[in-house]
Amino acid sequence: MGSSVLLLLIFSSWSATVDSLQLDDSKEATGRASNIVISEVFVSPNNLRDNDTSQNIFGAVDWNGDGYYGKSSDQFIEIWNSGNSTEDVSSWVLSVTSGSAPCQLPYNTSLAAGERVVVFRADSDIELDWNNGDTVTLKDTSDNQIHSMSFPAEDFGYGESYIEQNNVWSKVDPTPGRANNFTGTYTVPDNVVMCYKLTNTDSSRAFLLKGRVVTMDGENNVINDGNVMVRDGKITGVWASNTNPPAGVNPNDVPIVETEGTIYPGLIDLHNHVHYNHIPLWDFEVHLSDSQKSDEGGYTNRYQWGNNWDYGPSITWMKNNIQDRDRWDMASEQMKYAEVQAVSGGVTAMQGSPSSGTQAWDSILSRNVELRNFGQDGISTCAVCGAADDDYAGIHLIDQSAAGTLNAWFVHLSEGVDQSSKNEFDALWNKGLILEETVVIHGTAMDSTQFAKMATKGSKLVWSPLSNLLLYGNTTDVVAADKAGVSISISPDWGPSGSKNNLHELKVADMWNSNNLDNYFSNYELVEMVTSNPAKATGWGGFVGQVKADLYADLVVIDTFHEDPYRNLIEAIDADVALTVVHGKAVFGDVDIMQQLQGDDWEYVNGTDFQKAVDITSITEVDGTQTFAEIEAGLAMAMRNEYDDIKQYWTDVNSMNDTEINSWLNTTFDGKYDDKINHLKNLTL
After folding, report:
1. Are 405 and 376 in contact (CB under 8 A)?
2. Span 114-133, pLDDT tens digits
3. What DSSP string describes 252-279?
4. How do beta strands 555-559 and 256-265 pair?
5. Which of 118, 412, 595, 628 has its CA 20 to 30 A from that of 1?
6. Contact at 8 Å (CB) between 476 and 486?
C-alpha cells in the first residue's frame, strides 16, 4: 500500500505534543563531530488565501526569497556547528523517514565555529511531513548517524520552527541561518546550500554484453557474434568478437555477460497515458449498444467514448481513487507498476507520464520523456488542450522552436474517422503549429495531402493501431504517411484500449502490415518504428535509439530464436526478454543475468509460466525502498474496492459511521457504487 497510508497507520496512535519531542544521540559514532547538530526545522509555512503568492498575508514570509509566500518551498533544515573549531561536513547526508529521497551536502563544505547552513526544500526536494510527523537525520560519509530529530504529526503552530535548547525542543519564530535569539530585520540568509540527489551506486555500472548485436544503424549492420561494452551509463565500444576491442576499451576488468541473445536499442514509447496503465483492457462489451458508434463498429471521434456509461466506473474511478491522497494515495506505486510493465517488454523510455513534484518513480526504471533527460527538458505535450480550437495560439511553441529550445511537441490530433477529426490538422496547420518538432499522435483521420504537408516541415507521426481499431474500427493510413516521407513510430496509447507495451503493440502493427497492407513495411522498418525513429522524433538521436559507441546504454536483450534479427524482436514475447538496461543499469531480466549484474539487489517477478527478476529499489529515490511485491499487493488490494479496506484507509471517510460511509460512497460515485462494486472487483491486477 502507499507510503502515506502506512505512515498514517504508524502515526495514528501517536498523540505527541511539543513536550514529547526527543533528541536521538544514542547512535552517534565514536569520535564524530558531536558539535554538528540539526538546530532548527521549519515544517509548516503559513498558508495563503486564494493562492496569492505575491504578498505577505497571515504573517507569511518568503523565507527563501523565491517570490512565493507561505509555500512548502520555504520548509527548511538548519545545521549548526555549536563547537569551537571548523568541521568538514562535505557530502554528509540529510534524510527523512517520510519518503523523500536523501540528499548530500555539497562537496568541500566546512562549517566554522558557530556557523550555520540552511537547506530549503526548494534546494533539496526533502519534504517535511506535517500530516504524519517525521524524523530528520544527518549522517557522515561513513553512514554514521551524527544527529537526529523527530517531530509529531499535525502539530499546530503555523509559521513556527522547531529548535533545540539544552536538549529540549521548542517552537519559536523562524531564524534560518541565524542564532535563535536573532532580533534584527530578516533577509534571505547568505548561507543557503544546495543538497544534491545521491549518485546511484548500483552494481552494474560497468559490464560487457556478448551476443548478436543489432545496431539499428542500417539494415545490414548486424554483428552476429558481437560485444557491447557499457561503462558509467554509456556504450563505450561495439565490436565483433573476431576483431580487437576499440582503442581505450578494456573488457577484462568488468563482468562479462554471455547473453546468448540478440542485443537491440531499448524500445521507446512515444504515446502513452502511463497513470492509467494499472487498469486492464476495457470490457468492450459495454460499447456494443452505444448509439454514438459508427457503422464500421467504432466511435467516430475521441470525444465520444468518454461519455460511455462505463467510463467512470471502469476507468476514471480506478485512476483517480488510486492517486487521490485522501483515498489510496498510491500515485507513485501506480507509476512504478506501469514502469515495470514497460521494462518487462524492453521499453526504456515512455512519453505521457504525469508531472511529478517528487522523484518517486523518475530514474528508477524507464525514462520519462517529459522529464529531464540527457541534460535536456525541451519537451511539451498536449493531450486534451484544445490545440485545434480557435483560441489556442501556441505562440510559446513557435517561439521555442525559433529559439532552438523545443526538442519535441507531442500533440493528440485527428483521432477519429470523421470530418471534424480531419479538420483538426488543418486548424493547426493554419496556425503554424505543424513544426519540425511537432509529433502528431494518432492522425487517424488524416489523408495523403495532409501527410504531405507534415513532411514539408519534418513533423513526425506516432501510430497506435490497437487502440484505433478497438475504438474507431480503423487506424491511421500509415502507408500514405510513409509515401509522403513522414517518419513513423509505434506506441500503445494506454492500458484501457491499447497494448501492455511496445513489444506487444509491435505485433499488432505487424499483423496489420501483413493482413491489410500487403507487407508494405519491411521487418527492419517495423523495428525502426520502436527504436531509432522515436529517438529521432524526440530529438534524442544523438543519445539513444542505436547500439553505438558514445550513446547512452539504453538496451534490451532478447533470446535468439529467429535467424532474421528483426523478426526475432517482432515475434518475441515477454518470456524472451533476457535483459533491459536503462542508462547502464540492469533493471529487468533473467534471474541469472540480474544476479551477475546486480548481486542481490533484485526480486522475483512472475509471468505466465515463467519467472524474471526486477530491481525497483533505489536509495536515491523517494519511497525507493518499496519492493515490487509490496507495490503489486497494495494496488491489487486497492482495485478490489472492498468496503472494509476503504473504511480503514480512505481519509475521506474518517470519522464517519457505516451509514454515513455508504451514503457518501453512493453520492460521490453518482449513485452507482452499490450497482458497480461487483464489476469493479473484477478489475484487479
Report:
1. no
2. 999 999 988 887 888 888 88
3. GGS-EEEEEEEEEEPEEE-SB-GGGTTS
4. antiparallel
5. 595
6. no
- Which amino acid is located at 339 in the chain? E
Q: Is there a contact between 523 and 194 (Cβ–Cβ < 8 Å)?
A: no
* pTM for the whole structure: 0.76
Q: Crossing angle, helix 331-343 and helix 628-640, to 10 degrees? A: 120
Instruction: Return d(Cα 176, Cα 129) in angstroms, integer.
Output: 19
- Output DSSP code: residue 336: H
Counting runs of H as helices and runs of E as strands, what totals does the chain give?
Answer: 18, 29
- For 443-502, the pLDDT digits (tens) are 999 999 999 999 999 999 999 999 999 999 999 999 999 999 999 999 999 999 999 999
Closest CA to 596 of 262, 259, 257: 257
State how far the alpha carbon of 394 is from the alpha carbons of 221, 404, 406, 412, in Å.
41, 16, 13, 14
What residues form DSSP beta bridges with 487? 460
When mean pLDDT is compared across 77-81, 180-184, 636-640, the lowest value belongs to 180-184
Here the cell at position 358 is: 517528487
Q: What is the number of residues in the chain?
A: 685
Rounded-to-integer distance, Cα 305 and Cα 316, Å: 12
| Amino acid, single-letter form, for residue 316 | T
Residue with cell 522515436: 534
Query: What is the phi-psi region of residue 209: left when phi exceeds 0, alpha when psi lies from -120 to 50, beta otherwise?
Result: beta
Return the ∠ at Cα 499 (arms to 493 and 500), rounded to 5°: 105
Tell me if residue 546 falls in helix, strand or coil.
coil
Which is it for strands 379-382 and 367-368: parallel, antiparallel or unpaired? unpaired
- What is the gyration radius of the CA atoms in the chain, in angstroms? 27
Sheet holding 206-214, edge to edge: 234-240, 222-231, 206-214, 256-265, 555-559, 577-582, 585-589, 610-614, 603-607
Distance, CA of 440 to CA of 464 (rounded, Å): 11
Q: In 10 A of CB 355, how many CB atoms?
A: 8
